[in-house]
Structures are given as structure tokens and as C-alpha cells.
């Protein structure tokens, strides 16, 4: 699928090679030679995904990602780290910082294309589901989901809670969105509570679907209640 990408890397040769390869696959790629230039470009563009090096002068990839995550406009923007630092501890640091994927140099360009495509397709599908815009989800279906959620909340004591089989690392904002979804709030109401955009809420709900392996708000709330992930 096509999409708007922002590539931030201080190596001219790699930057040009990655840009050319991605553009061959139909993506529109904007490039920046450092994080500050990348930040300036973000003010003018609305990319669907950012690919960033970690080891850059002045502002490194971690600082750049932190800046993105602290800005309501970019807090849910997918970010792929593309870096020579490939130790397990480096990858863990990247994911803990909030990146969506981590690819070590040298890498197979086809793998990068596959990762970009997968993230964008998954986000698009999940965003539609989160917004109630999927082919199988209409207003009546969404209303039914919300009715089921409210019914679950009134029967909370009847839901057997079991320990989560894996530890799910939600970001503070993801946890806040999960709590509000579990209260039966719609995206517009959640956006008002968290003082963010509806689009960002949709992206956070999409992330929650992905992390919990669920496909609807009803499934998400039941999963959260069963595993003690929401109060």
C-alpha cells in the first residue's frame, strides 16, 4: 500500500538508497539529514510513518522519539528505528522508548518494505475498527458493542479474572485510553477527557487491539476485565 514516509538519517548514501528502494514500491519518501530537520519537516508534512536512525549528532533517535511522543500531534505516529545498534538491550530500549519496529543495519531492503507495509496495513484496518468504520461494523453494530460493554460492567463480579499469560507493557496514554474504553466511553468522549484528537484516540485503540490480540471494543473490554488490565 502507498503512504507518506519521513526518513531521518545522517548517512547520505544510506538515506538515498533507502529512499530509492521505498519509492520503487510506491511510497512517497521525504528525507531529513538529522532530527532537527526531521522535526521541522513534520510541521509541514503529515507522514503516515517515520523511519529514524538512532545514532545521530546533536539530537539522537531516542530524543527525537521522545519529542514525538510528548507532542499530541505525533504521539501515536508509527516510528521504525533503523540503526547499527543491534544488541538485544538496544532493541529493548527502543521498544521501551515507544518505537513500533526496530531494524538493525545491515538490513534487507525487502524486510524494511515488509515492515512498513505491515504496520500501515495493520494500522489502517485497526483504525477503521476503532472508529467503527470497518466493512463489518456499522452504527448498529457499534451500538450493540457498547451495550455489551455496559452489560459487562454491570456484571463485572461475574467475570472470572485470570492472570495475564504475558506481561503487556502499555504506555501511560494507552492505559488511560483502555480505562476509558472499559468505562463504555466513545472515542469523542475519550478525546475530550484526554484533551487530544479523535484520530489519536482511534490510533491508541488500534494499538490496544494489536497488543491484546482483540478485534472489537467488546473483546478488548472483556480481555481487560478478565486479566485485571482495567479497573
Keywords:
elongated; 5 strands; 231 residues; alpha/beta; Rossmann fold; 10 helices
Task: Provide an overview of this structure.
- The protein has 231 residues and is α/β, with parallel strands linked by helices.
- The protein folds into 2 domains: 4-126, Rossmann fold (3-Layer(aba) Sandwich); 136-226, Winged helix-like DNA-binding domain superfamily/Winged helix DNA-binding domain (Arc Repressor Mutant, subunit A, Orthogonal Bundle), CATH 1.10.10.10.
- The chain has 10 helices and 5 strands; from the N terminus they run E-H-E-H-E-H-E-H-E-H-H-H-H-H-H.
- It has helices at residues 12-24, 35-44, 61-69, 88-97, 109-131, 139-154, 172-182, 187-194, 198-212, 217-226, and strands at 4-8, 28-32, 49-52, 79-83, 101-104.
- The chain has a 5-stranded parallel sheet with strand order 2-1-3-4-5, sandwiched between helices.
- The protein is elongated, with a radius of gyration of 19 Å.
The CATH architecture of the largest domain would be 3-Layer(aba) Sandwich
> How much beta, percentage-wise?
5-15%
- Assign a percent range to the helix content: 40-55%
What low-confidence regions span 5 or more consecutive residues with pLDDT below 50? 133-137
Give a count of the beta strands, DSSP E runs of length 2 or more: 5
Could you say what the CATH topology of the largest domain is called? Answer: Rossmann fold
Question: What is the number of domains?
Answer: 2
Largest sheet: 5 strands, parallel
Shape type: elongated
Amino acid at each position: 500500500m502507498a503512504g507518506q514516509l519521513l526518513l531521518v538519517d545522517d548517512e547520505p548514501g544510506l538515506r538515498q538508497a533507502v529512499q530509492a528502494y521505498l519509492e520503487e514500491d510506491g511510497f512517497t519518501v521525504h528525507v531529513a539529514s538529522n532530527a532537527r530537520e526531521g522535526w521541522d519537516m513534520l510541521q509541514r508534512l503529515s507522514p503516515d510513518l517515520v523511519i529514524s536512525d538512532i545514532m545521530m549528532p546533536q539530537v539522537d533517535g531516542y530524543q527525537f522519539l521522545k519529542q514525538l511522543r510528548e507532542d499530541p500531534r505525533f504521539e501515536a505516529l508509527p516510528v521504525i528505528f533503523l540503526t547499527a545498534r543491534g544488541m538485544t538491550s538496544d532493541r529493548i530500549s527502543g521498544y521501551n522508548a515507544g518505537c513500533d519496529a526496530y531494524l538493525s543495519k545491515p538490513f534487507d531492503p525487502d524486510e524494511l518494505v515488509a515492515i512498513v507495509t505491515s504496520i500501515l496495513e495493520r494500522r489502517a484496518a485497526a483504525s477503521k475498527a476503532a472508529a467503527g468504520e470497518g466493512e463489518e461494523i456499522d452504527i448498529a453494530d457499534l451500538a450493540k458493542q457498547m451495550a455489551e460493554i455496559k452489560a459487562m460492567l454491570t456484571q463485572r463480579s461475574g467475570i472470572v479474572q485470570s492472570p495475564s499469560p504475558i506481561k503487556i507493557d502499555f504506555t501511560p496514554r494507552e492505559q488511560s485510553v483502555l480505562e476509558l474504553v472499559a468505562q463504555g466511553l466513545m472515542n469523542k468522549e475519550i478525546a475530550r477527557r484526554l484533551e487530544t484528537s479523535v484520530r489519536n484516540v482511534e490510533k491508541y485503540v488500534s494499538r490496544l487491539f494489536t497488543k491484546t490480540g482483540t478485534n472489537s471494543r467488546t473483546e478488548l473490554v472483556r480481555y481487560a476485565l478478565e486479566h485485571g488490565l482495567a479497573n
